[in-house]
Amino acid sequence: MKKAAFLFLLFAEIAKGQSLTFQQPIAQVCPDKDGNFLVLLNNGSIKKYSPDGMLQASCKIKGITSLDASVASRIFYYKKKKKKIGWLTPGLEFLEEREVSDLNALAPGLACPASVREWWVTDLASRRVRRISMATDAVRVEFPLPENFDGKKMVYNNQYLFLCGRNSTLLYDFLGHFIKEFEGGDVNFLGEEFYFLQNHKLKFCNVYSSEEREIPIDSDCSSVIFLENKILELFP
User: Fold this and answer.
1) Residue 160 is assigned to a structural domain of this protein
2) Angle, alpha carbons 93-117-47 (nearest 5°)
3) CA 229/CA 136 separation, integer angstroms
4) How far apart are CA 133 and CA 103, in angstroms?
5) Which residues in 56-83 are b (16+ Cβ under 10 Å) and which e?
6) Burial letters 11-45, b for 16+ CB under 10 A, else e
7) Separation of alpha carbons 40 and 209, rounded Å
């Protein structure tokens, strides 16, 4: 496996000897509940692939900051600069889009879904984290954002909220109670474990038992994502 020879040419390895090539930088890759994965490019293009690397659907929405396919029936998207959130169908068809109310976040930072009915947002103005009702905009849960948190990613999984920074991840329960801090800033999930790549090692940690394990990674990939029976390696 070789790194891309050009700045804007990236490879997403699906299996040994198989690769996908993109002419735009990859902004994000995320798996869904069915073992498929979504690729968000910097120009707003979204492509959905099967575990075997077959293109299933595509669309383009300008201004998207992040995607989240953790909700089975919908795909959540977030536009930070435009202060909007929205939903797509699993087939990447548009469902709805709404503005983020100033009452919920005057300066939205990170956002992710809690369910079809609720979503999480960090407010950089008030330094708060809030869980918001989709139907009423009511704040269900609220807690302070750590002063020195350098937000990179926020994910809600198995009733836990993960606030991912550059070098560490803060773990909270669904009521916003702080549990612990872990090393590693770009976490993904495999069953009851979350994992991250660090110093050519893929490190796993069980959310419930805190049991840890690690496996070596020989390639120079920048990120690793597990699908149903394949490993996705991303190369800058």
Assistant:
1) no
2) 25
3) 40
4) 12
5) ebeeebeebbbbbbbbeebbbbbbbeeb
6) bbbbeeeebbebeeebbbbbbbeeebbbbbbeebb
7) 33
Taking the C-alpha atoms of residue 43 and residue 35, their distance in angstroms, rounded to an integer, is: 25
Phi, psi of 189 (to 5 degrees): -130, 145
| 4 CB neighbour count, 10 Å cutoff | 13
Domain enclosing residue 197, as ranges: 187-235
pLDDT per position as a tens digit, 177-189: 999 888 877 888 8
Model-level pTM greater than 0.85? yes
Give domain status of residue 72, yes or no. Answer: no
**For residue 175, which of 162, 160, 189, 163 has the smallest C-alpha distance?**
160
Tell me if 126 sits within 8 A of 117, measured CB to CB.
no
**Strand duo 223-226 + 94-99: pairing:** unpaired
Domain membership of residue 198 (yes or no) is: yes
Lookup: tokens for 4:
């891309």
Q: Retrieve residue 116's tokens.
A: 């079809």
Length of the chain: 236
How many domains, in total, are found in the chain? 1
Amino acid at 8: F
Beta strands in 74-220 (DSSP E): 75-79, 84-88, 94-99, 108-113, 118-123, 128-133, 139-144, 153-157, 160-164, 168-173, 178-183, 188-190, 193-198, 201-206, 212-216
Residue 55's identity, in one-letter code, is: L
- The 10s digit of each residue's pLDDT in 54-102 is 899 999 999 999 999 999 889 999 999 999 999 999 999 999 999 999 9
Question: Which tokens hold the place of 168?
Answer: 């560490």
Identify whether 203 is part of a domain: yes
Q: Is 233 helix (H, G, I), strand (E, B) or coil?
A: strand
Q: How many CB atoms lie within 10 A of CB 167?
A: 11
